[in-house]
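agent: user wants the full assembly modeled, not chains individually. Plan: 1) parse entity lines 2) check alphabet per entity 3) run joint structure prediction 4) return tokens. Steps 1-2 passed, two entities, 744 residues total. Proceeding.
--- entities ---
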Amino acid sequence: MIEGVSIYEILTLTTTVFFIGVYGFVTRKNLMGMLISIELILNSAAVNFVAINKYLFPAKMDGDIFSIFIIAVAAAETALALAIIINLYRLVLSVKTKDLETMKY
Amino acid sequence: MDLRFSVLILLIPLSVFLILGLFFRRIKQPLAGYIGIAGLSLTSILSFFVAYEYFFHIGNVGGVFQKIVVGQISWLHFTSTMSINLGILIDPISALMLIVVPLISLMVHIYSMGYMKGEGGFTRFYAFLSLFTFSMLGLVLSSNLFQIYIFWELVGVSSYSLIGYYYTKPSAVLAAKKAFIVTRFADLGFLIGLLILSFYAKTFDFVTLTNPAFIHSLNGQTTTFIGLSVITWALILIFIGGAGKSAMFPLHIWLPDAMEGPTPVSALIHAATMVVAGVFLVARLFPMYYLIEGGIALQLVMVVGTFTTLFAAIIAITQHDIKRVLAFSTMSQIGYMMLALGVSRYEGPDGLGFTAAMSHLFTHAMFKGLLFLCAGSIIHVVHSNYMQDMGGLRKYMPITHITFLVATLAISGIPPFSGFFSKDEILAAAFEHHKLVWFTGWIVAGLTSFYMFRLYFRIFWWNDPVYKHKPHESPKSITFPLIILAFMAAFSGFIPFSHFISPDYIPFQSHMEWGLAGASVGIGLVGFIFAWVLYKKENDLSTRLSKAFGFFYKSAYRKFYMDELYMFITKEIVFKRISAPFAWFDRHVVDSSMNGIGNSTVWISDKIKGIQSGRVQDYAMYFVSGVTIISMILWFLIK
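--- prediction returned ---
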């Protein structure tokens, strides 16, 4: 709980970060940008968990633990995504999304 | 005496068929014949023994012939009330057939040794002869309606394969198809009839079905259709099946064409045995035909029989192909048997018609089998079916000549040959119960005598043509069966059939009606004299006479345009008016709606396939917009 900051402000912040992430995922032109956008989405969710836990159920720890899980899973996922991106780069010498459209109708 | 060994009567021909059929490449020409003849001799001995034992020892208990069922097994057990049995029923008429079928079949087997010599597919021929003998014996020994139907179809199949024996000849193939389709169409009636009958009677069993008390209980059946009880309809439908096999008008069109088969086959199947299956079927169910609803179904049998006998006799006069003359003569004689059944009553001496039909079946099998075998012998020598190519053959073929003459005298009803007795009984029974039927039968007796003597004189007298190859008598294997059958045709009339066969299983004494016999012999002689005048010596009287009859002669020669009528009905009405619109509907409505579904699917998918662009971000966009739309809907719904 932070003095002088209500839950609404925190939730407004996380929602803004979430939609910035969604916007970035849809519009970025290279894979690294998309990866960073995904991180934004995940972080907004993690902050939400912590904030709601602290403001609504201060006696419990569930939200904190969940956010730790999310951080761990996000780290693993990022490692995986980076591996895929490196492999793709070796294959097509590019990380631009417009060069990666072969799997279509 | 335990008759259980009579199962062997069926098993021997069946195993001969299997041996010859399975190893037909290994078994060469004469050996196949010997195997067939050996198997059939064994069958014949057993059959004659069973018939003898039945008629003279075990059949007659206290003056009543028994229905003996042996070897009954439950074959298809559906429920406790619905099961189909297989078994062997021996009663006077099946015992009679146990003499007719193996005897004729054995004669044909021996005859074919000479006749079919050098033909390709000799083993196949004997295999199918054995199959036919098995099926026919199974048919006459069946203990229930369902079993008889199975064997009924089996004789149809073997008849089909034997008519189409020369399968490289298009006309033979067509004839085989025609025979099979026409009889199969008629058998549809039989099948429906037996299903209706068994549905209401709750049994297939002949012993129950021919029990008068049981039949009277069926008369209480109140379900009716167009004013007749369903049982009567079932009997009429069963008769349609019988009429198809027995070539009754209007289902007769296959029989003349069936003459495309080898002549021994015509003798066995299309003269002596298979074609009388319809008569046998009606005789088998005779108590039902007579007792259900006062015998309306039996009236139909009588009308059809009477019409066919006259119809076929008129056509027979005009034909030139000697086998076709005999085929129409067969139709006419089977019509006689049907007519005799139709005028018969059930009790005592009034059952004379039934006895007469069965005795005529017996004698007819002998003399008509003989006539066909003689015709085969002649065709074998002359290499033609047409009487224009024949004449004066009596000098070259003495045995064939004498045996043919015996058979001709028998079929014309000249005493003391066999046909006289059976025909006289039929006419006596008809005279007692229906004068018009008697009159038709009497006229037909004259026509029969005329066309048979026409055939006889035309083949053996007429003129003395110059033959390319000098005709000679056929080999012994051909003449031996002729002599045996001639003996039977001459003397089998003296068998007192009424002592053995009657509709109520009680033997009775039949009397000679001398007045009627005199009348039928008289008209037979008239026919003979006409034939003598027209055909004894070569002259143009017959051509002038046929010209004088003009249109009537021509239409009789064309078989009263029955084939054309059938072609018209099938081609013009069924194919063009009914089938063609259905085909159009199928092609244009059913098919095109299916094509329409397929085409529109292709068109739509072609239009929308751009959605799957391969860009991950597009998919994410769709996902986000979808979630947004759904959450907005939910938002409004919950609010």
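agent: reporting back. The CA atoms of residues 49 and 63 of chain A lie 5 Å apart. The longest helix of chain A spans residues 62-92.
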